[in-house]
Fold:
Amino acid sequence: MSIAPLSPLRRPMHRVEHAESAVLLTSRSLMLIALYYAVGLWGYVFTPDPYGIPLVWPATGIGLAFTYLYGYRMLPALGIATALILWQFTDDGMPLAEAAGVVLATMTGVGLGAWALRRFGFSPRFERLRDVLILLLVGALAASGLAATAGAWAMAVTVEELSFSDTWWLCWVADLMGLLLVTPALIAWLAPGGRHLDSGLPMIVLLTASLIGVSALVYSGLLETGLAMPLSYAVFPLIMLAALRCPIQITASLMLIVGAIALSGTGWGLGPFADVGLEQSLLSLNAQLALLVLTGLVLAALRNERESAEARGRQHLDDLARAGRLSTLGELSASLAHELNQPLCALTSYASASRRLLERQRFEELRDALAQLDSNAHRAADTIRQVRAAAVGKTPREVAIAPGDLITPVLDLLDPELRRRRVRIDVDLGRSLPRIVVAPVQIEQVLVNLLRNAMDAVETRLDGIIRISARNLGAALEITVTDNGPGIPEEHLATLFDPFATWKSGGTGLGLSISRSLVEAHGGQLTATNLEDGGARFRFTLPLEVPDARS
Ligand code: ADP
Structure:
């Protein structure tokens, strides 16, 4: 994730770049001031407190998000916004020195918070659990800690009845809550590369409508507190679903919407938390919202952690398969070059000797030379056969194993890929299959190759399905992999198993050739056919040590 560094590297800038960056800086600063002012206004309007202590103060969170994303150059705008709010909402005005102190403390808290987010490698996508923890600590200690001190100080200076110590913690809770609600949503939407919404629109619409519906009902004042209170918890499962199914931008925005409705309602004196007095309602509503936000963020982070572990696993699998093929290819070519060198040299020298003998009409010697040529050509062919057998490796230990124990681990291995590609798999292992004696790794490699090819073939279909089945043929076990993809073009059927025969971009054309060699090394056969109603079927047999009478 690359975000513009906090202190951009100094390099000579052209005039156009200067102008562009000045426009960008101005527009971002204006956006920050407007948002800061709007949520400040909102904080003051929806407050049940006679002295105007807001229930929640999201302004600090906005300042933190902007400074984290766009650098310390946002701090002057933050200072202006804070001064604007102070000037607007302190009735009798605040002495200049105190006002400057409040502005400075807010700027320092936010600047320190943005520095800490960077310093501790916070990811705006909430990719790991530690990102949630970093935001929470930075919010609690730096940003909200200092901003709340500034807020409480402002209160104590302007309202005689309030002491700094009475209001500090109320300001801190309001600040931290506001930060938890707005910062994740702002950062997730504004961070570069964060706009890919890959999950289904119907799910997003349904969740948004349900959350707005439930919250609006709970904070409408229409329900008795006894009913509204338990119903206020109904947002939890919906947010959990969003965290598990939707991108972080959506989850964070939904939490913000729920928070905005709950806080506006309570500020207006509606809903289950309104009647219990400021301190109580502030605590209980904010505690509920804080838990909601943490649940959403923690679940989203855990999901991201799991998905990236799966992606790493897939990558590892791919690397392994590729490395296997390449090393086989490397070994094969190295031994081929080495082993074939000698018979090929002999072939050329006997061929030119034959030409000379023919020109001189020395037919007796010519016959000998041709015989040598023939036997060297056979030697070369034998060498190729041997190298091929060596390349598929006869060495792995063979064990007696139930077919299910061979197939199941492969399906487990490919399960994340099957799910990611939305391919269904139908497994039919028949009844009482006999054990087979094989080198499990090699047969698993064959299965992985066939299943991967089948996945590639059905990938573009919405109803892609692969069927894997095993049958006892008496003398052999037969395993088939069938798919409902486009099938193999007729003109390719004859060369399908040749090395390097590939018709897909990025293919190596080695999977089927190696698979056939591996099956043949076990004494079986691998064949492919097209199905009449579309799709391909790959079928391979593995001989049973003690042929089974049943079929
Ligand atoms: P690769 O997959 O690297 O191309 P393979 O030897 O495994 O190499 O496959 C060779 C070719 O056979 C593929 O490029 C593909 O065109 C074709 N093929 C394999 N399996 C199928 C299948 N199930 N359906 C259609 N074509 C297939």
